[in-house]
Each structure stands twice: as structure tokens, then as C-alpha cells.
């Protein structure tokens, strides 16, 4: 008989019990018969605090990581202001939504979800879009994302979803990616995730910048007016610059070229005075129309199509100041969905109910105690008067009594009187029902809205989504996970499922007669969200060398920068200066080896025969142009620079021809030999840049 190994005995003592040895239990060993739904009052009622399994599961999850956030760990933030366009008193008594002359200070934090603080910005992921309004009635936090939907319907599943999407537990791989087995295993077994997964596989998941990214409140909330009347509301942020994304090849290369790409862009644009701006809009649904849709308004995996309920613009937000200290402000800011002000209230959305518990619990562990609201970035701009005392990091020096009611302190602080309109009062609604763990049947259609999203995409967006599904599922080792996911895709769209199946080597299930066929929603496609034709803050690379025609280039730059608001960088093989056609020093912004095409929105090759010859002979410059072309970006050739473009044999490019002016073929703009002015060229190139991407190009020759 072999002697017992004491080290092995010690290891076994700390090893978790075999998960296959019996049913799921709580930490106290109590057997659990249901873990997909919180305990609620009826199928559509509020979540109950007595649900010890839900509270234990969420609490344990909230306390898994210190000190960084478990999710949304990598973020960037900025200060700014919000101002309403008009009074919204008809729908809400919230003070910050009344007077167009009053600017409310804000802090916004953008973030990725999956990766830790050290991960890259441009991974395929959901982006957080959290806004803290420092209002005259206290702090209001709109804790949203750049998707209007979420993966799960009930917060009790949140630990499961995040565990699945995070790096796999046995090897802590992969970082900042959803392309692995555990996430897609979860997705294939939980069809409620499909709608958000479709957004995740779209270009929405790889935004060009935070400045060109939408934001959503995700949940259905309530506005409450002074008369106590409630209105269901969905919140939207729409970027003034339009909606723009990267392509997947760019996103991957940028992770190596500049992992801080989105963070750096936000900082640099604010420092340069190019302040990002969003329009704040709402979708409003009268209480009596709660059940007027073919989905449940309380379901956070569903949208209200804008064609059914248009988005009403009610204000704008501008970010105009960077933080002074990343840790003190961006890292320590604490958001909470339950931080609301009079005039904004909750619904019984089971995911929102869970977040209202979870966020406060998270801050308690992450920021070391209950006094995190005293940190400058979290402090309201109005007085705080209560009997909460002591605790870790207490920075206020209190005097007087610390209980209520009291007479020794003059009864202070006293509660507001019943007639005080400034007091927060929850909307009164009747709630009754049996205590159950059961989801409403109105939450059970998991396929129609993914089909709505898919059918709303343009052809190039659909191809990008097919490529994304193939990439993600192609990283899964388990063929059964791949097969189950394709089975779910078949329930959404058979042609999509067939294209994905072909790419990942699985058999296609039979066509399903019940595949939904909703009418497309144009508001969901990038094709309809490009903005107002402005090229403001677009990053344009100009490839120069000795012999550049500086006068011609200056005229074009004036059109792009002064008239268009673009940001132009001149790149050469080395830093410092090059010589122009007159032999004068011509300054260079950056050395070509330190940057790449993926970091810019467009590329221009200016005139000057010697400069053009040098650019054409530079492998890095040629690769720069070819990559820009491959990624659908605008390309310009001016004077002799047009010959460089023509020499690359790009699809359909004409350099010389009859007539005056310019030629633009699929976003490639060149001036003709017979008289187009630099100003004419600048205007034509501006038009090409405003379109952002130009699809349908043939592969690069050579």
C-alpha cells in the first residue's frame, strides 16, 4: 500500500468538490432547482430581496476581482456638459431636462467589457457608454452600452455569461476576445443571447472611435412628470460625426500598432479642441401601450424599432475636458443604475432589477467601503445631508446627532414634506402575484429580432458578419459547440447559417419553416448612419518625400483642414523635414515607420515628380496605399502623385482623360491632366472622405 502524500492531501483539501457529483448548490450546500430566473412577484413583477440564491450568486460574482472592475475594466473618460433643447415637462419633472439655458456637468466613461485594464482598445466587444450627470437634484447615472440590447434577460444569469466570455479558467486564454469555446457553448445553449450576438458579430463591435459610436440605455425606464404620470422611455446617444467602424483586419493590426487607439483618439481630439458631441434622444411609449408590441418592453434583449417609435431628440452632450488624473477620476468613478433623480424611475425589467443591486455591491468591494461617493469624481454638486457615518475612507467631519428622529439636533436632517416637489417619489403601481421562478412567455421569442437585425444590414455588412461568425466559431475547438450554434443560426436565417457552416466545416441543418421574416429596419444599418457629410476630425495621411509640390499641397490642405475640419498628417521616410520643389524645408509630422494605414481614415499622394518617384519606390509607402485601398478607404492622387496611384494597378482607376476637374472611382480621386485645380481636387476628395468607406472594390493587383 502506497504511503499517503501529505502535499497531495493538502492540495485535495483546497480542491473544489466534483461538479459532476451532484446537483447545483448554494455556498451553504443548499440544493438549487432553478438558476435561470430570479424570484419575482409574478412573471413580470419586481425581483424579491429574499431571493438568497440570486443575492449570493451576484454578491460572489461582484467580489471576484480586486481592485479593477470585473467587467468594463479598460476604460477612458472625459468631462463635458449636457443641455436640453427644450423643456420635457410633459413627460418628466427631471430638472436637468427642463431649461435649455442650463448646462449640466457630466463625466462619461467608455470601456470594453471582456478584457482587463491592460488589454487593447480595438477588440471585438461590447463598449460601455456610462454617463454621470451632476444635476441640481443629485447625481443621475445612465449606465449604458453601444448596443441597445444585452445578452441575457435576467440578472441571475450575469455571472454565468461573464464567466463564459472571460478567458477560460484552465489557462486564462484568450484575453479581450469572445472567440473561444466557453462563450459559444453558452450562446449555443442560451438562445436569448442571439440578438446581442448578432450585434457583436457586426461592425458595431469594432468602432472607429468613441466619438463615432452610438450609446443606449439598454433597458426600458420610466419618465415621471409632476402629475405622477409615467411614460416608458428608451435612451439613445447618437454621435454628431455619424456612425463609423473599423474593419476586422484593421482592428487586429491596430492591437499591435497602437493598443490605446480609441483612448488616444478621445484624448487627442479633446486636447486639440475637436470636442465630441452626441445628440440625446428618447423613444417614448405611453403606459397604456405597454403591451402593444410583439415583444415585451421589459425584455432587455429586445429593441423598439425606430420605424415603430421614432427617436425624439431632446438635448445634446459635448465632451470638452480631459481628466487631470486617470486613476483619481476615470478609474475611481463609480456608476450605479439606481442613481436616479426625481422624474426618472425603474421598470420591472429583471436585468435592471439585478443591476440595481449589483452595482452598489461592486463599488463596496472595489473602492474599499461605503464612502466612495465622497471621492471628487463621484461627489454630487448639491449638499449631502444624512445620518450615514464612519466607515473606510471617511473624509467628512460630521458634528451633531447621527440618528433620526431626534430633538437634540433640532430634528435635522429632516425628511422633505409630502408637498415638497423636490423629493424623489417612486411611481406607484400595483404589484401582485405568486412568488415564483418563471419567465414570462412574452420573453420567449429569441429569433425574430436577430432576424430583424440581419435583414436590415447592407450586403457588405452581412459579409462582414459572416466573416465574423466564421472567425469566432473557427476558434472553437469543440465541433459540437460549432454545430449547436449553426443550429441556432438556422432558426434566424438559413442562408446565413449555410454561409457560416461552410466556413467552419459543419453540416448545415435542414431549413426551418418557422424562420422569421420581419421587415428590415433601415435605422440599424451603417449605410444610413454616416452623418451629415462632414469630414471633421477625419485623419488623413499625406505621403511626402523630397521634391514635394508644397504650394499645390497647401491649397488642398486648406480645403481639407480649414473648410472641412479634417486632421492632416504628413508622413515621410524620416522625421524632421523634406525639401520641396523649390528646395525649401517642408515639415513632416511623423516618420512613416512609426505609423500605419490602419491608423488613418484616408491617404493622399501629392504632386511633385521627384516626391512621387520616391513614394512609388518606398515599399512601406506602397504597402500603406494598398492597405488603405483594401480596407475601402478614400485614396487621392494629386499631380504626379496620381501616377503613383495609377502605377499600383488598383481596380478601375483612371489617371488621365478628357475634360477638366477630377475623377473619382470607388473612392479613389485623381486630378486629370488637362486643368483641374487643387481646390477642385480638394472638394472631390472631401466628398470621397465624407463617405468613409467605399465597398465593392476588386482585390489589389500585384
TrEMBL record:
<keyword id="KW-0575">Peroxidase</keyword>
<protein>
    <recommendedName>
        <fullName>Catalase</fullName>
        <ecNumber>1.11.1.6</ecNumber>
    </recommendedName>
</protein>
<dbReference type="InterPro" id="IPR029062">
    <property type="entry name" value="Class_I_gatase-like"/>
</dbReference>
<dbReference type="InterPro" id="IPR043156">
    <property type="entry name" value="Catalase_clade2_helical"/>
</dbReference>
<keyword id="KW-0349">Heme</keyword>
<dbReference type="InterPro" id="IPR024712">
    <property type="entry name" value="Catalase_clade2"/>
</dbReference>
<dbReference type="InterPro" id="IPR024708">
    <property type="entry name" value="Catalase_AS"/>
</dbReference>
<keyword id="KW-0408">Iron</keyword>
<dbReference type="Pfam" id="PF18011">
    <property type="entry name" value="Catalase_C"/>
</dbReference>
<dbReference type="InterPro" id="IPR011614">
    <property type="entry name" value="Catalase_core"/>
</dbReference>
<dbReference type="InterPro" id="IPR020835">
    <property type="entry name" value="Catalase_sf"/>
</dbReference>
<dbReference type="InterPro" id="IPR018028">
    <property type="entry name" value="Catalase"/>
</dbReference>
<keyword id="KW-0479">Metal-binding</keyword>
<feature type="compositionally biased region" description="Basic and acidic residues">
    <location>
        <begin position="1"/>
        <end position="18"/>
    </location>
</feature>
<dbReference type="Pfam" id="PF00199">
    <property type="entry name" value="Catalase"/>
</dbReference>
<dbReference type="GO" id="GO:0004096">
    <property type="term" value="F:catalase activity"/>
</dbReference>
<comment type="similarity">
    <text>Belongs to the catalase family. HPII subfamily.</text>
</comment>
<dbReference type="InterPro" id="IPR010582">
    <property type="entry name" value="Catalase_immune_responsive"/>
</dbReference>
<keyword id="KW-0376">Hydrogen peroxide</keyword>
<keyword id="KW-0560">Oxidoreductase</keyword>
<dbReference type="InterPro" id="IPR002226">
    <property type="entry name" value="Catalase_haem_BS"/>
</dbReference>
<feature type="region of interest" description="Disordered">
    <location>
        <begin position="1"/>
        <end position="29"/>
    </location>
</feature>
<feature type="domain" description="Catalase core">
    <location>
        <begin position="25"/>
        <end position="412"/>
    </location>
</feature>
<feature type="region of interest" description="Disordered">
    <location>
        <begin position="384"/>
        <end position="404"/>
    </location>
</feature>
<dbReference type="InterPro" id="IPR041399">
    <property type="entry name" value="Catalase_large_C"/>
</dbReference>
<dbReference type="Pfam" id="PF06628">
    <property type="entry name" value="Catalase-rel"/>
</dbReference>
<comment type="function">
    <text>Decomposes hydrogen peroxide into water and oxygen; serves to protect cells from the toxic effects of hydrogen peroxide.</text>
</comment>
Amino acid at each position: 500500500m502506497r504511503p499517503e502524500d501529505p502535499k497531495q492531501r493538502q492540495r485535495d483539501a483546497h480542491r473544489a468538490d466534483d461538479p459532476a457529483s451532484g446537483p447545483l448548490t448554494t455556498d451553504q450546500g443548499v440544493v438549487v432547482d432553478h438558476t435561470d430566473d430570479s424570484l419575482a412577484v409574478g412573471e413580470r413583477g419586481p425581483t424579491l430581496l429574499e431571493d438568497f440564491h440570486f443575492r449570493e450568486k451576484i454578491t460572489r460574482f461582484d467580489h471576484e476581482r480586486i481592485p479593477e472592475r470585473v467587467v468594463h475594466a479598460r476604460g477612458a473618460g472625459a468631462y463635458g456638459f449636457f443641455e436640453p433643447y427644450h423643456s420635457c415637462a410633459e413627460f418628466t419633472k427631471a430638472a436637468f431636462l427642463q431649461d435649455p439655458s442650463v448646462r449640466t456637468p457630466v463625466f462619461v466613461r467608455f470601456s470594453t467589457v471582456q478584457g482587463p485594464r491592460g488589454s487593447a482598445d480595438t477588440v471585438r466587444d461590447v463598449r460601455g457608454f456610462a454617463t454621470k450627470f451632476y444635476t441640481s437634484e443629485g447625481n443621475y447615472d445612465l449606465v449604458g452600452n453601444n448596443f441597445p440590447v444585452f445578452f441575457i434577460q435576467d440578472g441571475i444569469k450575469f455571472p454565468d455569461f461573464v464567466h463564459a466570455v472571460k478567458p477560460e479558467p484552465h489557462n486564462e486564454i484568450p484575453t479581450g476576445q469572445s472567440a473561444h469555446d466557453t462563450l459559444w457553448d453558452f450562446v449555443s445553449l442560451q438562445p436569448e443571447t442571439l440578438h446581442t450576438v448578432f450585434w457583436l458579430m457586426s461592425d458595431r463591435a469594432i468602432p472607429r472611435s468613441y466619438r463615432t459610436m452610438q450609446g443606449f440605455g439598454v433597458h426600458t425606464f420610466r419618465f415621471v412628470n409632476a402629475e405622477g404620470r409615467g411614460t416608458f422611455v428608451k435612451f439613445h446617444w447618437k454621435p454628431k460625426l455619424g456612425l463609423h467602424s473599423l474593419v476586422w483586419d484593421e482592428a487586429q493590426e491596430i492591437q499591435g500598432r497602437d493598443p490605446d487607439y480609441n483612448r488616444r483618439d478621445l484624448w487627442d481630439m479633446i486636447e486639440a479642441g475637436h470636442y465630441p458631441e452626441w445628440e440625446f434622444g428618447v423613444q417614448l411609449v405611453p403606459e397604456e401601450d405597454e403591451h402593444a408590441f410583439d415583444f415585451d418592453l421589459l425584455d432587455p434583449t429586445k429593441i423598439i424599432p425606430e420605424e415603430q417609435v421614432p427617436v425624439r431628440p431632446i438635448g445634446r452632450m459635448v465632451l470638452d475636458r480631459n481628466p487631470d488624473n486617470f486613476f483619481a477620476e476615470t478609474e475611481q468613478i463609480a456608476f450605479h443604475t439606481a442613481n436616479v433623480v426625481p422624474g426618472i424611475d425603474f421598470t420591472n425589467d429583471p436585468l435592471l432589477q439585478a443591476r440595481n443591486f449589483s452595482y452598489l455591491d461592486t463599488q463596496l468591494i472595489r473602492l474599499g467601503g461605503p464612502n466612495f461617493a465622497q471621492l471628487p469624481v463621484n461627489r454630487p454638486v448639491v449638499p449631502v445631508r444624512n445620518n450615514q457615518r464612519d466607515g473606510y475612507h471617511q473624509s467628512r467631519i460630521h458634528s451633531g446627532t447621527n440618528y433620526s428622529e431626534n430633538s437634540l439636533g433640532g430634528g435635522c436632517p429632516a425628511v422633505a414634506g409630502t408637498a415638497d416637489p423636490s423629493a424623489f417619489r417612486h411611481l406607484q403601481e400595483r404589484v401582485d402575484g405568486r412568488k415564483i421562478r418563471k419567465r414570462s412567455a412574452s420573453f420567449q421569442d429569441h429569433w425574430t429580432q436577430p432576424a430583424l437585425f440581419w435583414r436590415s444590414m447592407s450586403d457588405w455588412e452581412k459579409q462582414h458578419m459572416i466573416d465574423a461568425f466564421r472567425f469566432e466559431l473557427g476558434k472553437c475547438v469543440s465541433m459540437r459547440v460549432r454545430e449547436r450554434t449553426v443550429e441556432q443560426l438556422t432558426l434566424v436565417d438559413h442562408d446565413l447559417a449555410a454561409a457560416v457552416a461552410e466556413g467552419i466545416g459543419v453540416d448545415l441543418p435542414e431549413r426551418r419553416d418557422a424562420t422569421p421574416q420581419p421587415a428590415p429596419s433601415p435605422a440599424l444599418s451603417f449605410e444610413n448612419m454616416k452623418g451629415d457629410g462632414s469630414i471633421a476630425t477625419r485623419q488623413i495621411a499625406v505621403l511626402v518625400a523630397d521634391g514635394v509640390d508644397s504650394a499645390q499641397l497647401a491649397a488642398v490642405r486648406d480645403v481639407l483642414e480649414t473648410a472641412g475640419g479634417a486632421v492632416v498628417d504628413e508622413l515621410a521616410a524620416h522625421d524632421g523635414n523634406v525639401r520641396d520643389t523649390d528646395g525649401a524645408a517642408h515639415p513632416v509630422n511623423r516618420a512613416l515607420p512609426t505609423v500605419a494605414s490602419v491608423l488613418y481614415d484616408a491617404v493622399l499622394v501629392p504632386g511633385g515628380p521627384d516626391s512621387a518617384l520616391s513614394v512609388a519606390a518606398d515599399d512601406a509607402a506602397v504597402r500603406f496605399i494598398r492597405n488603405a485601398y483594401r480596407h475601402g478607404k478614400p485614396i487621392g492622387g494629386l499631380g504626379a502623385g496620381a501616377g503613383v496611384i495609377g502605377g499600383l494597378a488598383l481596380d478601375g482607376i483612371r489617371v488621365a482623360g478628357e475634360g477638366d476637374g477630377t475623377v473619382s472611382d470607388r473612392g479613389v480621386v485623381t486630378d486629370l491632366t488637362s486643368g483641374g485645380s487643387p481646390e477642385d481636387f480638394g472638394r472631390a476628395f472631401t466628398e470621397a472622405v465624407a463617405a468613409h468607406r467605399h465597398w465593392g472594390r476588386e482585390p489589389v493587383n500585384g
